[in-house]
Amino acid sequence: MAQSNPNRLKLSQLRALVAIAKTGTFSDAALQLDLSQSAVSHAIATLETELGVILLNRGRQGAVLTPVGATITAEAEAVLNRLDTICQQAQLAKGLQSGQVRIGGFRSVATHILPAVIERFRQQYPGISVTIDEFSHYRRVDESLREGRIDIGFSYLPAGKEFDAWELLRDEYIVLLPPAAKPVNAQLTWEQLFSYPLIQTPPGDGCRYKIEQYLMRHQQPCKFAYDVREDSTIVSMVQKGLGATIMAKLAAEPIPDDIIVAQLPDPFERVIGVITLTDALQPPSVFAFLDTIKAVWGGKPGESQAA
């Protein structure tokens, strides 16, 4: 008996076989494939001739797979599924040749976290544009995501129930003291902290809000001598001896060597996470950017942290 030649097998024959196996009759398979019944019959006949085996037993009750027919049908389904995967991959690649990703976050994220991610992303997907909106308060990041003005947000965790989120990093709040400060232990007392004029970001800033909440929890006054918007300006003022500041470590970096770094009386931190809107229909570019964040910074996409 001549050996079967796989190059002579046709996808139309495999589709006909799978359709008959699922519907049970040649006529129903023809309807499913939008072909004539004779075309389906011819496809099966030529397939059986090429393979040299009987795939279907025909009868009044319909078409029933023979044992070898059942085995070959399973393989045919696997082939057709692989073809679907090929088409999906091609479609995904086309979607990553252009488009955009809209990012929202606060200053320290834009300065210290995003550049390395964007560098990697641009290497892999040069045709996709990336836009970044910087916000002074993390709540504005959440609002922009809800309103569809950004695709991916960097915010504080825990996040609301409408978001998918994963933890990116934990950022400790520290105290920066001027170079001429008296020697102190690594951890300040409240009295030592408030012996300096405190420099802080203006009302409405996300970090100031977190610091005010922290001080109120400890029944400490929320009195600041200076309101300064830029983190780098605050660090420079501390360096010039104008006062001290409470600041997230990531926002303070790079910290000048002559500035004294101390711990708060009761340490606390902010948890920075990546958030997306749970029910949003995201384009491939957004998923690619999320994968790039994970590759550069780590994290566990899909693990929600609800408030």
Automatic annotation (TrEMBL):
InterPro entries, A to Z: HTH-type_LysR_regulators, LysR_HTH_N, LysR_subst-bd, WH-like_DNA-bd_sf, WH_DNA-bd_sf
Chain ranges of the HTH lysR-type domain: 9-66
Signal peptide start and end residues: none
Record's keyword terms, sorted: DNA-binding, Transcription, Transcription regulation
Family that this chain belongs to: Belongs to the LysR transcriptional regulatory family.
The protein's name in its UniProt record: LysR family transcriptional regulator
Organism of provenance: Leptothoe kymatousa TAU-MAC 1615
